[in-house]
Design brief:
Largest sheet: 7 strands, mixed
Low-confidence stretches: none
Strand content: 15-25%
CATH architecture of the largest domain: 2-Layer Sandwich
Oligomer: single chain
Structural class: alpha/beta
Helix content: 40-55%
Number of strands: 7
Number of helices: 10
Distance between the termini: 30 Å
Mean pLDDT: 91
Length: about 250
């Protein structure tokens, strides 16, 4: 039997959250299927190579695709992030290479795959809380600049007292949007700025490593570190599931 990732206690809490969505029935085979999804996320193998011990690979894929389409995995993440400490929010982006299996014929669904000299890429725009736990994210093509995606990310984030980001977010539109949500932007200006950085709380800025730490933890999972999913919603669901596992020590009844 391949290595599994969920304890009995962890699964009991997880299935309660899934049933709470009203879109999942309580079936005994769901745990094995979920372990198969986690196995594929961890090792990054094709769906056909998921061990038979977890069930038929096509059943595991169809259920993952269905849960992704219904937004169930995103709802799990949404439920868990309600525990976030929103005194500080840290935002940043990270580029992910797209495997050739994730590209091919065009689809009517959103793919969020960008093309550049480096090949096909996707960018994860992530926000984390004061404890270094993921709060929300969006997925775009790899060519999208951080400051352009920042407004969309900030709009779906809950209000925070301080929002911290690096120089890639040096934009007055971003700062104004943060202030409009009653937050204080801590974003250094570029070196050629005439305004300078006299108003930056550098002590607080040093904690920006918390968002980098989340990217490092997420990329322990090979299906996150390299994108194998063609559709943006499926990759986002994989990412949401990885975020849920980061939240796992914080799960409470």
């Amino acid at each position: 039997m391949p290595r599994t990732m969920l304890t009995d206690e962890c699964w009991s809490k997880l299935i309660r959250l899934m049933l709470k969505t009203g879109r999942v029935y309580d079936k005994p085979e769901h745990r094995n299927t979920f372990e198969g999804i986690l196995y594929r996320m961890r090792v990054g193998c094709p769906w056909r190579d998921v061990p038979q011990a977890f069930g038929d690979w096509s059943t595991i894929y169809r259920r993952f695709n269905l849960w992704s389409k219904k937004g169930i995995l995103m709802q799990l993440f949404t439920e868990l992030r309600q525990l976030a400490d929103l005194e500080w929010e840290f935002i940043d982006g990270s580029i992910v290479k797209v495997h050739q299996h994730a590209t091919g014929a065009c689809s009517e669904d959103k793919e969020a795959i960008g093309k550049s000299r480096g090949g096909n890429t996707t960018k994860i725009h992530m926000a984390v809380d004061s404890s270094g736990l993921p709060v929300d994210f969006i997925v775009t093509g790899g060519e999208v600049h951080d400051s352009k995606a920042a407004i969309e990310l900030l709009e779906q984030l809950p209000d925070a007292e301080h929002v911290i980001a690096d120089r890639g977010y040096d934009s007055e539109k971003v700062r104004e949007h943060i202030r409009a949500k009653n937050g204080v932007p801590t974003i250094p200006r570029k070196r050629n700025s005439k305004i300078g950085n006299g108003d930056i709380d550098w002590c607080l800025y040093k904690y920006r490593h918390l968002v980098e730490n989340v990217f490092a933890r997420l990329k322990h999972y090979r299906s996150v570190a390299t994108r194998y999913d063609k559709l943006a919603r499926n990759y986002a669901s994989t990412l949401a599931l990885a975020c849920c596992l980061i939240w796992r020590p914080m799960w409470v009844d």
